[in-house]
Amino acid sequence: MKRWAIIALALLAAVASQAQETPCSWNVSLSGGYMMPNNMKYSQYSSPTFGLDAAVLWRPEGNSYWQRFWNYPSFGVKAMYTRIPNAVAGDWFGLEGVIVNPFGGRWEWNWGVGFSFYTKPHGVTGDTNNIFIGSVVNCLIDLGIGYRLSDAATLSLRLLHTSNGMLRRPNLGLNYLQLDLGWKFNNNVSYRNDGSYVSEEMEKEREWSVALSGGAVMSRDSSMDGYYPCYDVSLYYQHYVNPVFAYGGAIDLWYNGSNREIIMSDESEYRLPLYLSGMGCVELFWGPISLKVGMGLVVAASCQVTIPIYERVGAYYNFGRNYLGVALNAHAGRIEFIEWTYGRRFF
Fold it and tell me: In this model, does residue 16 exceed pLDDT 60?
């Protein structure tokens, strides 16, 4: 794990060296909180946590609509270490990209996505009590809200989730509720709150788009080994309220290969493990970066679906009419697979 820590610090230093031409600050935070399994049926494995985070944030210069709307947000890279006494999966290091959005005077909210690296996953120790983290490398989702005590100090409340999207069993996942006290060094980033995001003419009011996604998972059935392909085709329609906020819906047709043996054992006639679903969604834009969140219902499936609710959370990079990104396709709060996506927008 020392190797991962060195890599994280090297990447953080490289990003910092490239950010000197824009308003930039170093940030260090002390954190304390509580770790909870993704299913509270196993609450006996909960544990207090404490840790240390370091980040470099920079604010691109400009006067674009999205910068004014989000009150001149900062972009950054954060490295984290979280200590969990007597934790079943060990401690973890994290590395994520983060966006910090000031609002309402001294308040700010932030979101980030990245990777977490556990020291004692099931795949390394073989501990049968660890049904939560199977692999060293896991996905990391981070959502927080903070209050600036001064220009340098910030108190934040954060909710984090780590799991591997069924790339390795077991994968119940772990959640963290943390309180952070942060301090900015070399802070030449001034906070502005001029409320100047006045309406302006949009390039488009509505759009259609098609997204093609793929991934791979292990089966949740421990008797089935190997990896199985997963695919998703999505047709989106969105209406733009302004250049940074759109809402709409999608029709999804997805295939989860890990369910084909389950279908073969349950049915006399084999059927493809296909799912047809519909969802509502919202998409937020920070220049070329966007965050899309959706929730919907499975309306038809090749095998029995106990709870027909599914969710998708994805981060994308937009270039022209195209976009690339990664999303978590989840079923009733449990990640089905990680989607690597290419999409095309049609006006």
Answer: no
Average pLDDT over residues 301-308: 76
Q: What pTM value is reported for the model?
A: 0.84
Write out pLDDT tens, residues 90-134. Answer: 999 999 999 999 988 899 999 999 999 999 999 899 888 898 999
- DSSP states of 107-156: EEEEEEEEEEEESS-HHHH--TT--S--SSEEEEEEEEEEEESSSSEEEE
**What long-range pairs does 227-234 form, CB within 8 A, spacing at least 24?**
227/167, 228/256, 228/257, 228/258, 228/260, 229/255, 229/257, 230/254, 230/255, 230/256, 230/257, 230/258, 230/329, 230/336, 230/337, 230/339, 231/255, 232/329, 232/339, 234/210, 234/343
* Amino acid at the residue 110: N
The identity of residue 84, as a single letter, is I
For the ranges 87-91, 127-131, 193-197, 221-225, which has the lowest average pLDDT? 193-197
- Domains by residue range for the chain, with CATH: 2-185 (2.40.160.20), 206-346 (2.40.160)
Q: Per-residue b/e over 71-108, b at no fewer than 16 CB within 10 Å?
A: bbbbbbbbbbbbbbeebbbbbbbbbbbbbbbbeeeeeb
Q: In the beta sheet, which residues pair with residue 283? A: 246, 292
Q: Is the pLDDT higher at 278 or at 261? A: 278
Q: Is the pLDDT score of 14 beyond 60?
A: no
- How crowded is the C-beta side of 77, counted as CA atoms within 13 Å? 15
* 117, 120, 121, 125: CA torsion to nearest 10: 150
Residue 200 token pair: 């302006």
* CA 110 and chain centroid, separation: 12
Scanning the chain, the segments in alpha helix (DSSP H) are: 2-18, 65-69, 122-125, 260-266
